[in-house]
Amino acid sequence: MIPLSPSLRLPLSLSLLLFLSLLLPISAVAAPKKNVLFLIADDLNTMLGAYGDPLARTPNIDKLAARGVRFDRAYCTYPLCGPSRNSMLTGLYANSTGIHNNSQIFRETIPNQLSLPQAFRQQGYFAGRIGKLYHYNVPNSVGTSGHDDPASWELQLNPAGVERTEEHPKITTLTPGQFGGTLSWYASPKSDEHHTDAMLAADAEWVLERSAKPNQRPFFLAVGFFRPHTPYVAPKDPYFGYYPREKMRIVPAIKADQADIPAAGLASYKREQDNMTDDQRRDALQAYYASITFMDAQVGRVIDALDRLGLAESTIIVFTSDHGYLTGEHGLWQKQSLFEESARVPLLIVAPGVAKAKTAAASPVSHLDLFPTLAELAGITAPANLQGQSLVPLLRDPSATGRGWALTQMMRGGGGGAGKAKGKGAAAKVDSGGGRFSGYSLRTPRWRYTEWDEGKQGRELYDHESDPRELTNLATLPAHTVTVAALSTQLQAAVKTTFPPSGQVPEFINSTWPPILVAP
């Protein structure tokens, strides 16, 4: 054999490599697509160890936070389950989806809009849903698809545990016969595997095992946990034991706090809470914490399966909640308000190769930002009308600013969302005349500024540098006139972005509930 000269070896080697690459299947040379694991809790605020809560035992969510970026100022667009979830999964504000109430789906109003999982599904992904992603009536819809969107998924799994099938008669509730819309709780004698969220985690393990087999499509797997939504039900052992009743705090000085809050700001108040004793408040808070820790254990099962199956490095993970939750602050419980506790959500994003681990982003962001972010990370073409921003720059550099604000909306009056206030004091003064109006709250790094009915039903201004609990409303003080004027201008400009662009207003086809707002 005649040896080749060094000058010929390199070109020949390159030619051979090129020839061999042509013989390989495209999938062998193309970069594999990233999977998406989308985890969402129900009615969860930031009472988590990763967010600094001194009592919360959430080791699995805390470990997940350490793997990526924790967004410290993340906000829902609407603090009510149905509107929030429809907004998050379409990438559109409620003024563009037309969904301002529960028990609705965006197909009733904008049927041709592409949802987040549907976009992945149409571009080659396996898209599966386990549990609650769009709206469910909790607990009555547990075990069904609820108000789901079939076009978003090719697999839907809806297990139902003992808290739905057996334990209703034993649940403590402030309103007899009601469990989901009022405060209710129960320490179950049944162990984890009997409860819905544990069944969801087991189903997720099953799906991940099949997704890890060779030659499978990339996946968009959404797992919607039901806890800690009311009724707050979790196994008594060990979860309730982690939270001794005597350590459960009672929010003090409620009347003094409420004195400077507009009536509309307190209209999510519910009359049955008038007669709650401090012992009941401690019981409810204990059960809420226990439900969070039980849900955290199920998150751990899903993440452990992802790691065990070798999928972690190829999977983007999101963890969030549909909105925040009040646990006695300002004299309020649950959601449907525009205070920080109700509007703020936990948001963790793990993006291998992109996101910096063990970091936190301080700039305000929105649920709307998830659709464009995941589309960019996975190389998916997204609809042109999305109203959020991509968070990829913040994943790469958590000190980046991005948009720099987040907007949250809530309806009042006329029976939509939270109705007329019926409580005592300030909360008894709401009178919408039977009409409906919006409250909008703008969150900047320093301020929360809220206008109810364009200010006609009141304004709120809170300085988070000195008042993170939002106890002092500064909106009417002369010293803050300039700040109020500047934030009002910014808020009004932000509100305009919640509507479709001029000339592109969709035809809302749901005649039973036409949109009550028009684009400015």
What can you see in these coordinates?
The structure is a single chain. It is built from 15 helices and 20 strands. With 520 residues, the protein is α/β, with parallel strands linked by helices. The chain has two domains: 32-404, Alkaline Phosphatase, subunit A (3-Layer(aba) Sandwich); 409-496, no CATH class. The strands form five sheets. The chain has an eight-stranded mixed sheet, with helices on both faces. A hairpin with a 5-residue loop joins strand 11 (326-327) and strand 12. Helix 8 packs parallel to helix 11. The longest helix is centred in the middle third of the chain and has 31 residues, at 278-308. The protein is globular and about 65 Å long.
List the helices and strands and how they pair.
Layout (H helix, E strand, L loop, with lengths): L5 H18 L2 H4 L5 E7 L17 H8 L2 E3 L2 E2 L5 H10 L3 H4 L18 H7 L3 E6 L23 E3 L4 H4 L6 E2 L10 E5 L7 H16 L7 E6 L7 E4 H4 L14 H5 L19 H31 L6 E7 L4 E2 L5 E2 L5 H4 E2 L1 E4 L8 E3 L3 E2 L3 H9 L13 H5 L9 E7 L24 E7 L3 E6 L6 E5 L17 H16 L24
Parallel strand pairs: 1-8, 1-10, 2-15, 3-16, 4-5, 4-8, 7-9
Antiparallel strand pairs: 2-14, 3-13, 6-7, 10-14, 11-12, 17-18, 18-19, 19-20
Helix pairs in contact: 3-11, 8-11
Mean pLDDT: 90
How many helical elements? 15
Strand content: 15-25%
Order of strands, main sheet, comes to: 5-4-8-1-10-14-2-15
Largest sheet features? 8 strands, mixed
- Indicate the structural class: alpha/beta
Question: How many separate structural domains?
Answer: 2
CATH class of the largest domain: Alpha Beta
